[in-house]
Write a structure and sequence with these properties.
heterodimer, A: 351 residues, eight-stranded mixed β-sheet, globular, B: alpha/beta, FAD/NAD(P)-binding domain, five-stranded parallel β-sheet, 26% helix
């Protein structure tokens, strides 16, 4: 825990976004995580992404469960709404929140323990429903809060701090999401904000459920030699399958075409995700090719990163269920709750 | 004692200094106003405890060397202050009957109370200085014959500049500013006319107009040739004068004194219009401004009518002595200069520095060491880490604005000539003001080999000072840091290549507030906060034992 709050002095040449806010206005309270935690870097990337797209703080809802990762919503955008739910239940709570108020932007922050063990079922169903939210898995391969036991994402052979290798096969959240029909799947690294920030911005513009798996080294329990989730291992084995630019709605597209050709995807809100460097055998809109590419490179011990798969054509939960266009709070109470007589009439229909 | 170490006159300078340190203070870069260093020195001086026991011990057995100082101003007193503890016998020749030099004669007592001046001068005289009042030196030749081992000339710049315009010699109501202030200080002048014009807009002009106010003048105008940004007076002195009802008139160039029937009635000025940078002007018209008295405050110069020119000390074409800028020795061995006597008017704190340096030279000279052998500065660099997120310095940033000095009521302050206007900081103000300090002495020290590039320091830095990026030319780098590095006078700190990606850690020191959060958030202690201490050498004390 730092000895002081972050000084209020601000740099005089700080830019302001469309709302007139500086990036400092998107900060939260001081982090209580270990110094050097990858999660703090992801927090900084979220702050930057929200500031760059001029997200109004009061229109954001921060959702989380339990774990080191789930503490982090406190550390960004203190002007936003937030809900810190029970372990693994974040996706379910977010589903309910979104059902009640579809006008907010939802950012869920979870970890490999919260999402891939106790909360795995909820994650799968949020993907199925195509719930419109940014779902970040801060993936460090260990249970940091309980002193470094292997989590469900630990690779076979990855060594614990005491040298014990992991024997159980990992769950890869990216492969899992693709197989479940997820419509936006990305992987990045906490130590590479140049890649992570555009991905987060694109995810916030996505029509439905956007899963971003971020390798986020645990400096205290999983940053040693023999770990496959350390800063050094990730840097040495990271393979950037795609490079992306995020172009906000109504701005001129100036990105140059990458050496391997380029693909542009227009998002639901009019913004454009532009893939700069895509290998010839890769197509981020073809689920099968992406799965093949992943399994091929995973076999070589490579950590494939980038915005890996995107499909803007699938309706989200609200569109699938034909729900009202506004938040429920904006619907007059008489209409929202028409009384027991109306209920009786409704129930009559099912007799 | 720390306050006295290099400053020598903290009570005096805490009230009257020109504050060359404050424009350099980095706090000004953050919220526009530097730390009130000058006022804080006054607080420390005014509230000090008993220091007698901590003053240097003066050896009873002298080293046999006799030094003569000319003038008992700040430069000579500093020489005595540095040399007396080493066993020298110092004699000071002073033309007045009190010590202090310009500090007494030219600084009005409503800015510097006589009690403060007396006390700080007396502290040095009590070291056993042989002070000879009412003893102006009339001949350097004669002084040389008295066999001193070295002579220090600290006689100041006692000659006020003249303004030889028509009418100057036809009346006795035109005064030279510094002479006039001196005659007030010694009680020879106690009144002035109702309408007073001050010519010139330096700090002496400010002392003249404010003194006039206290002697009964009602309508006081300070007449300046150039626009306000080009004034020599310190901004705070201008403010204080205006608060007292003095009018400052710009763009008026003196043309002639108007004397009718032997009586001064006023002055004629040419009204000027300046170009953008106030380099060239054109005359608009001529105006008459009535006055009962005119005070000339357009500068002063050193003068040495008593210094024979055939003694081996060269004087240049402006009749100023030729003095070495490092050793303060003239071209005649054994004669040293300092203070305003050396290169014309500067200020008190420069006179003190000249005194320290001349004392080192005199000590060398008396021990047959070349005066060009200057002792080196020393330094310490010590980690301030006390524990996890715990530092031995106060690392929190205080957003308090610069504290405002409270003044005696306008009505009250004019009742007597010597009522000190500035009241000094209250304890609360002092506490806030000291916390505005950004701890520039506590350096962020980076060890590249330890860095794992986790970005924690870059993310936490409140002023966006840090960037991890690939190498490039300086111009290129300055443009792609976390925040553009626009202050080109502030060099970038660039690390060795980092172990994992070979990128570089770059720090733009410009706006760093030394909060230490980079070091607190660093998992590998690649960042550390280390206190830098510059150790200044003095005569007879090398830097390594300066603190002993």
């Amino acid at each position: 825990m730092p000895s002081i709050a972050k000084p209020t002095a601000i740099h005089p040449s700080l830019h302001r976004n469309e709302l007139g806010l500086t990036i400092r206005d998107y900060e939260g309270s001081m982090s209580t995580l270990c110094a050097g935690c990858g999660h703090d870097s992801i927090t900084a990337a979220i702050i930057r992404a929200c500031w760059e797209i001029s997200l109004a703080p009061h229109m954001l809802a921060k959702m989380s469960g339990i774990g080191c990762s789930s503490k982090t919503p406190t550390y960004f955008v203190s002007g936003a709404h937030g809900f810190n739910s029970a372990h693994g239940r974040m996706a379910a709570i977010a589903t309910g929140a979104s059902a009640a108020n579809r006008e907010l932007t939802y950012i869920g922050v979870s970890g490999d323990g919260d999402s891939l063990s106790i909360g795995l079922g909820h994650l799968c169903h949020a993907i199925r429903r195509n719930l419109k939210m940014l779902y970040i898995i801060e993936n460090n391969g260990v249970y940091g809060l309980t002193k470094g036991q292997f989590s469900a994402s630990a690779d076979v052979g990855s060594k614990s701090k005491k040298g014990e290798p992991n024997r159980m096969a990992p769950i890869d959240p990216v492969a899992l999401a693709l197989s479940l029909g997820a419509t936006f799947v990305a992987r990045s690294f906490s130590g590479d904000k140049d890649q992570l920030v555009p991905i987060l911005k694109a995810a916030l513009s996505h029509r439905g459920f956007a899963l971003v798996d971020v390798i986020s080294p645990c400096v205290t329990f999983n940053d040693h030699a023999g770990s496959t989730k350390s800063y050094l291992y990730t840097r040495n084995n990271m393979l950037k399958a795609t490079e992306t630019d995020f172009v906000p709605p109504a701005s001129e597209i100036l990105a140059t075409i990458g050496r391997n050709g380029a693909v542009s995807v227009t998002m639901h809100d009019g913004s454009v995700v532009r893939f700069k460097g895509v290998p010839p055998d890769y197509d981020p809109t073809d689920r099968k090719k992406v799965l093949d590419y992943l399994s091929e490179h995973h076999g070589k011990g490579e950590v494939v990163t980038g915005l890996l798969y995107i499909d803007e054509s699938v309706p989200d939960m609200h569109e699938l269920n034909n729900t009202p266009a506004q938040a429920l709070t904006k619907i007059p109470f008489e209409k929202l709750c028409p009384g027991s007589a109306a209920l009786d009439t409704l129930q009559e229909e099912f007799r | 004692m720390l306050n006295r170490e290099s400053n020598v006159f903290p009570g005096i300078l805490g009230r009257t200094c020109d504050r060359p340190c404050e424009p350099a203070c980095r706090r000004g870069r953050i919220d526009g106003k530097p730390v009130a260093i000058c006022r804080l020195k006054r607080v420390a001086a005014d509230h000090r405890g008993e220091i007698a026991a901590r003053l240097p011990k003066i050896p009873a057995k002298k080293n046999g060397k006799r030094i003569a100082c000319i003038g008992a101003g700040p430069a000579s007193l500093t020489v005595a202050n540095d040399l007396m503890p080493l066993g020298y016998q110092v004699t000071i020749f002073e033309k007045n009957d009190k010590p202090g030099g310009l500090m007494r004669t030219n600084i009005p007592s409503f800015r510097l109370p006589a009690s403060v001046l007396d006390e700080e001068c007396q502290t040095i005289l009590d070291f056993g200085v042989d002070i000879r009042y009412n003893s102006p030196v009339t001949s350097m030749r004669a002084l040389l014959q008295e066999g001193y081992d070295a002579i220090f000339v600290g006689s100041g710049a006692p000659r006020g500049k003249e303004l030889d315009l028509p009418g100057r010699r036809e009346t006795d109501r035109i005064h030279i500013g510094i002479d006039w202030l001196e005659s007030i200080a010694f009680g020879h002048t106690d009144s002035i006319g109702e309408k007073v014009l001050i010519i010139g807009v330096g700090n002496t002009a400010m002392d003249c107009c404010r003194s006039s106010r206290r002697l009964g003048a009602k309508d006081i105008k300070v007449m300046a040739r150039r626009p306000r940004p080009y004034f020599k007076a310190s901004p705070w002195e201008l403010e204080d004068a205006e608060e007292e009802g003095v009018e400052i008139v710009i763009n008026h160039s003196p043309k002639r004194f108007v004397v009718e029937n032997g009586k001064l009635t006023g002055m004629e000025f040419e009204r000027l219009e300046w170009d953008a940078k106030a380099k060239n002007s054109k005359v608009l018209d001529t105006v008459f401004v009535p006055a009962d008295d005119v005070i000339l405050a357009i500068g002063q110069e050193n003068a040495f009518p008593w210094f024979e020119r055939d003694l081996g000390a060269q004087f240049d074409k402006w009749d100023a002595p030729v003095v070495d800028e490092k050793t303060y020795m003239s071209t005649r061995e054994g004669i040293f200069f300092g203070g305003d006597a050396a290169w014309g008017p500067k200020n008190i704190i420069w006179a003190v520095e000249h005194g320290h340096q001349a004392a080192i030279s005199i000590d060398n000279y008396c021990h047959r060491i070349p005066v060009t052998d200057r002792p080196a500065y020393g330094m310490n660099l010590i980690s301030q880490k006390m524990g996890l997120s715990e530092w031995s310095y106060h690392n929190d940033y205080n957003p308090a604005p610069r504290q405002k000095m409270t003044h005696v009521d306008l009505a009250e302050r004019f009742k007597k000539l010597n009522i000190e206007v500035e009241l000094g900081f209250s304890p609360e103000q002092t506490a806030k003001e000291v916390q505005r300090c950004l701890n520039c002495d506590v350096q962020t020290v980076f060890t590249a080999e330890k860095c794992i590039e986790c970005d924690a320091c870059v993310d936490i830095c409140p002023l966006l000072c840090l960037t991890i990026t690939r190498d490039g030319s300086e111009e290129d780098l300055r443009g792609r840091l976390s925040a553009p590095a626009l202050n080109l006078t502030q060099e970038l700190y660039v690390s060795a290549p980092l172990p994992q990606t070979k990128r570089l850690m770059i720090k733009d020191e410009d706006l760093c507030v030394h909060c230490g959060l980079c070091a607190e958030r660093c998992p590998t202690a690649a960042w550390d906060m280390q206190k830098f201490e510059l150790i200044t050498p003095y005569a007879g004390r090398t830097a390594c034992c300066a603190q002993a």
